[in-house]
Amino acid sequence: CPICGGGAFRRDEDVLDTWFSSALWPFSTLGWPENTPDLSYFYPTSTLVTGYDIIFFWVVRMVVAGLECMGESPFAHVLVHGLVRDSAGRKMSKSLDNGVDPLRVIDAYGADALRFMLVSGSSPGNDMRYSDEKTESARNFANKLWNAARFVIMNLDEESGEGRSPVSGAEESLRPEDRWILSKVNETAAEITRNMEKFELSLALQKIYELIREVYCDWYIELVKERLYGDDKAQKRTVRRVLVGVLSDLLRLLHPYMPFITEEIWGYLNKEGKLITDRWPVYDAELRAICAEDAAQIELGMEIIRSIRNIRAEADAPPTRRLTVTAVTDDPRKAAAVAAVSGHIERLANVASIAVIGSGGEGRIPEQAASAIADGVELYVPLDDLIDYRAERERLTKEAARLDDEIRRLNGKLSNEGFLSKAPAAIVVAEREKLAKAEDNRAKVSARAETMRDRG
Question: Global pTM?
Fold first, then answer.
């Protein structure tokens, strides 16, 4: 015995550590040493996903055991991810009692939300921190997808079989926004496929998230509501087919990450068979050429809408205030594009009208206006549209009175010899800085009030 020196003991020469028995897992679970159908079908597999802490303990032993017992490696690729740590960055352990019970998380947020959070927060080889906030955010995304799907399903004609008919980008009934979303999904699906083939799972998930949340929910559904609620039955059918066709592809792309909610929604779309056995979206090279011009129009319109919303927000103008917009460009293609999507701009940015002129039309540009540039197109919104001068003058009057009171209070304090002699020097300096700031703000309010005097 190497510890006590006793010679009556003999070390067992036929002992392997537990990882060697675990190394048999890829084939022992499939019926080995018998040549079962499962063993023939499932061995070897394609990819092993594991943490970096057991590369030597388990991964290497599985390869050795597979080569020895089966004559070939149990997998072709190994994707090594980091560890899931607690919210403070510590490794989860029994001694620290900082483990997170996945069953508790699933009960609170759902299995899909937990899967989404774990994949979105991981990158090969890097550790991640678990947090309920991230899981809750993933649950909220699932809710948004569910609500969008409900909106689509509630607007379907149950007898038309709209959930089954594919949409071709060459169809004459399609509008620019339809071709834009078809092109967007087509291009993004190709990127996602490339990311997944390179095991860039987190990057692929981020693109799916943006495609569903921002492109489909925040933009396309809003762009087509007017047609969906209109009286043109042919256009309503077209919108419904595109809504369902695109949603179907989005469910296919998201399914590996959130299998339960996607399979559930799939069942409501009048689909035949299960989503898990359906086809993966395949890139259509022709669709890009067919939809390129329409997609460019919609992208420009979206950029203009964002710019107008930013102008409104910076001016603190209420969303209900209707604006008039002047768009300036010498590019005839962009001018035509703005005119083509003007209806969307007017509806989604609450614009009364948008005029498109060349740079030679300076006389038609408002003299007092807020401005922005959207993809080379200059945008001007008259200040008279943005500002309620009467309300602004009232606000400035109240703000001036408040600042006057503050300046009087600080002057009184700083002219008090008792305060100056007893207060610490840092406090006195801070009070003088407050006075200087209040006086500066008062001057700005006065200047702003002067500009408001003769307006409105």
Answer: 0.80
